[in-house]
Amino acid sequence: LRPVLCQLWFSLPERLGLPAETLIFFHALLFFASVALSLYAMMPRSSSRLQKLLFIIISLSIHSVFLLPVFFHSLSDAPTALFVLCGLWILISLNNTSARGNVLKAALVGGLWGCAIGIRAYYLYPALLAATTWCLIAIYQRRYAQSFALISALMLPIGLQYHATWQYSDEFSFLPTKGTQFWISYHDNNAY
């Protein structure tokens, strides 16, 4: 029982005509993109080599704190956490560019968080809460276009999942109730 984007993500190597092991390469690319985005968000533009090395160590430490708990669980947890981290780094660096660039960055944040939700449904409510909180702050600061871009991009994968569930089970829900109830009862009745 997985969201529809999860199926698309994991079928990507086959759709591109590549071996299945390429998926690990995609995950590594996501990791390096997240590290690069973190350096862009944290590191001052004029830094010495020692400062750059320090920021790289800090970035790798932050990534290890976030990825170590999820790295060995399932194949979908690590890329999902990396999509969330990439979105957070872009959100932190949001004021480093022009107003037009900020709108594009906000849309990218929403899209990345939407991809995280589309791969792992666990992130649905935290992403909605974070996006709502950020949008309320943005609206208070009169950054309407940014908040609209973030929410619109975030709702696209969520709407796609609702549509897929509707097509599959004629239910208006994020995931089909029948499959969800099975896994809830399975986890409630097993201690491991």
List the helices and strands and how they pair.
Layout: H1 4-10, H2 12-15, H3 22-42, H4 49-71, H5 77-92, H6 99-119, H7 124-140, H8 144-169, H9 177-188
Helix pairs in contact: 1-6, 3-4, 3-5, 4-5, 5-6, 6-8, 7-8
Features:
192 residues; mainly alpha; globular
Could you give a short account of the major beta sheet? none
Q: How many E strands? A: 0
Query: How do the SSEs run, as a string of H and E?
Result: HHHHHHHHH
Mean of pLDDT: 84
Strand percentage: under 5%
* Ends apart, CA distance between termini: 19 Å
**Low-pLDDT residue spans:** none
Write down the Rg: 18 Å
**Alpha-beta content class:** mainly alpha
Counting H and I runs of at least 4 residues, what is the number of helices?
9
Description:
Helix content is 77%, strand content 0%. The protein is built from nine helices and no strands. It has helices at 4-10, 12-15, 22-42, 49-71, 77-92, 99-119, 124-140, 144-169, 177-188. The two termini are 19 Å apart. Helix 6 packs parallel to helix 8 (144-169). The protein is globular and about 55 Å long. The chain is mostly helical and 192 residues long.
Q: Quick gist of this model?
A:
This protein has 192 residues and is mainly alpha-helical. It contains 9 helices and no strands. Helix 3 packs across helix 4 and helix 4 packs antiparallel against helix 5.
